[in-house]
Design brief:
The protein is mainly alpha-helical and 188 residues long. The chain contains ten helices and no strands. It is globular.
């Protein structure tokens, strides 16, 4: 499938408000890619597909994780994590995306991971700070993203972790690992 086919297919799968979010992530990802030296074409494609499974019913997401042997420990944590990993599977199987860098950027856009690639960081951060996002601290994340991708992403992870703590929810360990990895990267 070419980009326009993928764009149209994904748009048809999502509610209007979520599609507006995807468009915001696409635009933001390309800006961040240009600013920090990532491939803007890959950033655009990963952004288009990052929420492709977002509106699948939870039982369908759980079934996909089990049937396709997708990161089984996800089932122990917040179900909001499932759509990213299942989305990478869908991008590969249904949309023919074979580029591991794009697939990983989709897969880890909610949790991050240890030693994130530049594209991972761009997609994760674009998802945090696209223009439609409005939560306490988002303006600070946007400010940091003008000059430092890692600091902006750490601020995003801090926001997520703080929110999960206030909600009494468990924190997916990979998010803590991703945050610590970014801090180690900055120190070195």
């Amino acid at each position: 499938m070419n980009r326009n086919d993928i764009l149209n297919a994904v748009r048809d799968r999502l509610p209007k408000k979520r599609w507006e979010h995807v468009v915001g992530v696409m635009e933001t990802a390309v800006i961040l890619a240009d600013r920090f030296g990532a491939d803007p074409v890959k950033a655009d494609l990963a952004a288009i597909l990052h929420d492709v499974a977002k509106y699948w019913p939870i039982p369908q997401l759980e079934q996909a994780v089990i049937e396709h042997h997708i990161q089984g420990d996800l089932l122990l944590y917040d179900r909001q994590l499932l759509h990213a990993h299942v989305g990478a599977y869908v991008a590969e199987v249904e949309y023919g995306i074979l580029d591991d860098e794009i697939l990983d950027a989709i897969r880890y856009h909610t949790s991050g991971r240890e030693v994130m690639t530049l594209l991972d960081k761009v997609i994760c951060l674009a998802d945090y700070m696209e223009p439609g996002r409005d939560f306490p601290g988002v303006e600070h994340i946007r400010y940091l993203a003008q000059s430092n991708l890692d600091l902006a992403l750490i601020a995003g992870f801090d926001s997520t972790i703080s929110y999960l703590i206030t909600q009494g929810k468990s924190i997916y360990p990979l998010t803590i690992i991703a945050r610590n990895s970014l801090i180690d990267h900055i120190k070195n």
